[in-house]
Amino acid sequence: MRSLEDCNPIAAAVYFLAVTGIAMFSMNPCLLFISLCGALLYFLVRNRSRGAVTHLWMLGLFLVLFLVNPLFSHNGATVLFILNNNPVTLEAAVYGAAAAVMVLAVLYWFRSFTQIMTSDKLLYIFGGLSPKTALVLSMGLRYVPLFSRQAAKIRHSQTALGLYKDDNLIDRFRSGVRIFSVLVTWALENGITTADSMAARGYGSGRRSRYTIFRFDGADAFLLAVTLVLFGSTAVSVGSGALLFTYYPSIQPPAVTPLAVSGCVSYGLLALVPTILEAEEKIRWTCLKLKI
Amino acid sequence: MDLLEVENLTFTYPLCASPAVRDVSFSLKEGGFTVLCGPTGSGKSTLMRLMKRELVPLGEKSGRVLFRGTETEELPASDSARLVGFVAQNPEQQIVTDKVWHELAFGLENLGVPQPVIARRVAEMAEYFEIESWFEKSVAELSGGQKQLLNLAAVMAMDPSLLILDEPTSQLDPIAASEFITTLKKLNDDFSLTVLIAEHRLEELIPICDRLLVMDGGALIADGEPGKVIRELDGQEELMLAMPASARLFRMLGAGGECPLTVREGRRWMAERYGIKIRSLPDEPHQNSGTKDVPALSFKNVRFRYERDLPDVLRGLSLTVYENEILCVLGGNGSGKTTALGCAAGILKPYAGEIRVFGKRLKEYKNQSLYKDCLALLPQDVQTVFLRNTVREELEDAGADPAELPFDLSALYDKHPYDCSGGEQQLVALAKVLAAHPRLLLMDEPTKGLDAGKKRDIAAILGKLKASGITVLIVTHDVEFAAATADRCAMFFRGSVISAEEPRVFFSENRFYTTAAGRISKGVYDRIVTVEDLAALCRMNRLEDGGAPC
Fold first, then answer.
1. Number of structural domains chain B divides into
2. A149 touching B, CB under 8 A?
3. Helical packing angle, A258-291 and A9-25, nearest 10°
4. Is the Cβ pair A158, B385 closer than 8 Å?
5. Any domain includes B513
6. A53 touches B: beta carbon within 8 Å
7. Which of A52, A181, B63, B249 has the fewest CB atoms within 10 Å distance of its CB?
């Protein structure tokens, strides 16, 4: 097996959709806690000590989300104390904590998602719709940064020419408008070269085919199958109501049934898949290195 | 049958009175390496575009272009795209996609080639052009030379029989340019690929080509082996400036024999004909003696990096530019030359060290006063200077007075700045920069993409500016230009200046980083920098008749 980063982008994207989808559509605290653990573990395995700032932000966000709900929502039967004539309830506090865990879990999953799914992988997924879409997306990815670099160059040139009369805001705004208009001229003018280059290499001479550096092999199929089976099993438990956790008016956890347990276990496995892949690869690599 | 035949080709652009290409006939044999040269505006680009069906410009055309006996218009679209490869001047704008691997596959995708075939071809190209290490990179991360190599590889992936290149190395630094030319020669040798290349910089191309075509005023005025063409070509003084130094020396001295093309041939040719009685030219008094002491711009231990975690680009740069001198800073790509100019112009902020302009620290120039009657920067990409639709509006916008300029732009007034040639754009941009009446002018690669004649014009203008009291700091790759213009030359290496000396001393002490004339005369004559100096010294050393210098 390979780590999630080296898998086919479609398999990886399906995995992220599955794992975050469950977290977003179930408010069961057990599932949410599993999700957060899985996401955090994977993030730590990938980034190790880097990302301290991220963790601090996440902690702050957690506290805010956790506190906001009981302060503004006064539903629930168990009153803990009265604040400014408003009751603060246990149920609202628990709900706030669960919601905060959910947001954190999803954010950590997305953090890993953006690290793994680089622009060319997204392009591979969306470009599958048609070779033309693939080309348009690819050109877009090239031109947006190109234009912003050119805009910076123009601004520097104009500054050194003494275009800006003073250091005031209006003057800057007017210069900004001029730079934008120059940028459009530049883009159109130089676009001709690009169009020539495309024509010279046969663009528009017939049906396009599509080349990509990503393959889809047995390992990807296996990952996809595992993802779908575990997702399906969890979804059945969630959908049947076996994992329904009631917060209001008073907290009522679901009964411990085989269906509920199987749901939690399969989601636990699902959340651990990327960490397992990563660990497996590292262990195997260490063993292989010992042979060298 | 020849690979390509051009018969009586004449082409006129719409609304133009005279044809851009007139009655041109020639043919290319398979496996040939042909160089097409001629002054700017002689119709080289038009002629090349007429040979590539997809790029034929709008206009009136007569005559025929035959590819393997078939008119190019009648070739199937996919064959025409595949068999004739075209590489243009601007490395950046020719790239279409965002990733190196996608760019390599682009042409084959257009032809609908199946994925496994593309995969093999792309792998082959990556291997041959040694671009494996940057195969998965974004094109934005590549240097100019790498971009142009990628353009070449992307065309070669389609397996063309004829490769047409329109000034492919004019935007590259000399090292990247010679790498590119070496790759072309290798393709020509390894695959018998037919190459037709138009270029201004001929020093390295002439020795490896087997045929030289010369165009002037839209007509083909010479065609043949390079040595023979150079020997017989008359009345093309501007064009001669672009030729290899050995060939120029040969022409200047007119002493007969085979025309030498390389430095090695030049040395041998010279040794056979000239003695070594007089080793160096009489010393000229140093032109810049009086003003040496007043610094116009000084760097003191300047350190700069673009981001906190990136390495230093300027590593303790110390350099002084004195008032009323022209200082050329030479150095390779990525050595930090452009960054140094950005710091001097106050655009980039160094994190340590001190920069003074006319004795005042940069920080003390408040409210843009640095750019008023004081300092101006002419950037490398002069298109970033233009804001308006005509040259006239540009000059009015900047408040430039055409009467004050040391050159004449009146012929360009109604043109769009983008429609001007590279050299004209440079002059228009310079006019805008001079409108702020700078006392210190910073120039970044002012000769990039210019032909030899335009370079000489720029050098003359710089001389006039200096005479009017302006101090000039130039960063450039162009050794020959620096040798001809500078009062002092400095070498930039790894973020600081290694040495700053008068050109004759600077270039004659350098072994590798010197002019071709310097390399031809190395160990034979002393302190030779330009071909003109070398020719003068040769005349004094004539063997056969011992005659007086003419």
1. 3
2. yes
3. 150
4. yes
5. no
6. no
7. A52
